[in-house]
Amino acid sequence: MLHFKRLDHIQICIPIGKEQEARNFYAGIIGLTEIPKPKELLVNGGLWFEIADIQLHIGSENETNTSKRHPAFEVENLNDAKSYLIANGVMIKEDIQIEGCKRFSFIDPFGNRIELLEKV
After folding, report:
1. pTM for the full model?
2. Tell me, what's the pLDDT at 96?
3. Could you give the C-alpha distances from 98 to 35, 70, 80, 91, 95, in angstroms and in order?
4. Mean pLDDT value across the chain
5. How confident is the model over 79-100, as pLDDT tens digits?
6. Counting Cβ atoms within 10 Å, is residue 110 exposed (0-12), middle (13-18) or buried (19+)?
7. CA 90, CA 25: separation in Å to the nearest integer?
8. I need a labelling partner for 88 at 20 to 30 A (CA). Which of 17, 29, 30, 114 fits?
9. Phi, psi of 16 (to 5 degrees)
10. Per the CATH hierarchy, to which homologous superfamily does domain 9-119 belong?
11. What integer is the mean pLDDT of 13-35?
C-alpha cells in the first residue's frame, strides 16, 4: 500500500526554445517564483517554479499534447483571480461547477490547461 504525504510537483510541457515566453507568463502574469533546476537537468531545458508548497515543472519537448491532463490549484477569491487573468488577455473557460467548489480553467500560451478553484 502506498501512503502519500502531499503533492510534490506537477509537470507540464512547452515547445523547445519557449522558456522566455513561459517565464513571462508564469512569473510575469501568474506571479510564480522561479526556482533553480538541479544542474543535472539543465541540459533538458525547461523551467521550475514554486507555487504554494509544491513545484510546477515546465519541461520542453518537440510537441505538446493537449488532453484533459492538468494541474488544479486552490486559490483565494476566485473572482479576483478570474478578473486579473482576463485583464491580462487570458481566455477563461467556464467549467462545469461541482458541489462545494467554484472553478474555471484557462489554457496557457503552450496549450496546457490550468484549473483554478475555490472551496465554498
Report:
1. 0.79
2. 86
3. 34, 17, 20, 21, 9
4. 90
5. 999 999 999 999 999 998 888 9
6. middle
7. 10
8. 17
9. -55, 135
10. 2,3-Dihydroxybiphenyl 1,2-Dioxygenase, domain 1 (3.10.180.10)
11. 95
C-alpha cell at 83: 478578473
Question: Does residue 107 contact residue 93 with C-beta atoms inside 8 Å?
Answer: yes
3-state SS of the chain is: CCCCCCCCEEEEEEECCCHHHHHHHHHHHCCCEEECCCHHHHHHCCEEEEECCEEEEEEEECCCCCCCCCCEEECCCHHHHHHHHHHCCCCEEECCCECCEEEEEEECCCCCEEEEEEEC
* Residue in the structure block whose three cell numbers are 462545469: 96
Is pLDDT larger for residue 116 or for residue 63? 116
